[in-house]
Amino acid sequence: MPRRSQIVSDILKRRNQQTEDTTNNPSQFEKEERFLRAELTKARSRHNKKFEIINQCKLGELHRKAKKFKEALDYYQQAYKIDKEDNYMLSGMGLTYRDMGDYDEAIVWFKRQLNPIKTLTNFSGSHALAW
Length: 131
Known about the structure:
By secondary structure, this protein is mainly α.
């Protein structure tokens, strides 16, 4: 039986593939945006911060791929207010600044994602859960 994390990972991969398809088609983009906003509303109503962050980041990614960088940054910054160490958000911020051509700012966000102390803490936590 697949682990929960693998299931979530598979869902996110499928959503990524769908997101790539939607950015080229305006009606698909709008449909995807409506869906993700509805999911964000559900996450907020359930007080589920993790899924709120995921949906903020998915909206950011959708806008980044459509080259709507200001909107993308707005969504990532909303996720940042909830969890300043979320890897999905940090990566999204870095990728958005990279796509904008602001490489210095992109490096800042990628370095935050690769913080060695945070990485060791996350490894220790996941290792402890395995025991």
